[in-house]
Amino acid sequence: MTIREKREEWEREYLSEYAALSSESAGRDIDEPQCDLRTVYQRDRDRILHSKAFRRLKHKTQVFLEPEGDHYRTRLTHTLEVAQNARTIARALRLNEDLTEAIALGHDLGHTPFGHAGERTLNEVSTKGFHHNEQSVRVVERIEKKGRGLNLTKEVRDGILNHQTQCTPSTLEGKIVRLADKIAYVNHDIDDAIRAGILSEEDIPEEYTGVLGHSVRSRMNTMIHDIILNSEGVNDIRMSDKVHIAVMGLRQFMYSHVYTNSAAKAEEGKAGKLIKELYYAYMENISLLPEEYYLFIKQDNEDKESVVCDYIAGMTDRFAIKRFCEIFVPKAWSDI
Fold this sequence. Notes:
The protein is an all-alpha fold. The protein has 2 domains: about 5-260, Hypothetical protein af1432; about 270-335, no CATH class. Helices cover about 60% and strands about 0% of the residues. The longest helix has 24 residues, at about 170-195.
């Protein structure tokens, strides 16, 4: 019996009756020989972790564009916090921690430079629309490995696609990530906003802190415990009504006071303009694209608009600025 088979046997004996078992995965689009060491979900996690798209997350905006200081979250640190919260919940509920982690690590691979400002801009200019969850799936199915993709299991791709509030993942592990994403960004965005001087703890309404706690740590603890206590032994991942109402209220408070705050968003107009100009430049002249993306259009007959969005969405903040300067700023003046 291989190490993988022993792990699969352990899952069948130990995990909850509601867990997604590795041995029962719906599989990959392209069949592959099984690994003797790792289950299918462990392999998926490793493929995401070693992907180029994952590495680029460290230079993509979470909320604050080019913040003054090294302690603000990036898209990468957000992803790691989501993965940690999700793993804690999955382990407590005896669900598949490997599947949960793979979904969490991959859920934001398709995010644009400059955070949601970049996503909104591409959604505005592209006739096909643009949504980062759908783009994350496109990254793992098509873009990575020069068009070969990562060939992930259906369960991981489903969790990545359906991690947003309005979606419904097919596995409990995917549902964990959907909630863990909210828990992470609400709490760490409060932490970053306090660090930036946009908020103080006292600014947060008592109707929310009275339920959830009066610090980032206590609120995180309340939310995670509440999910575990209300999801144990049932075929669902959920919060109590009281905590869920408080979390949604806190989320709305953050939209009003941070996500649309003039100090936090002062540069977003410039970022949007930059993304638009890059989009129109590549649409007008696809020879500006790197060879890999150019061939997607010319050899593989991929839709031009989709490929242009692929390339821009994959950029880091600083690379997008660099490409803008290369295309639009005269070289004699570029260092001034």
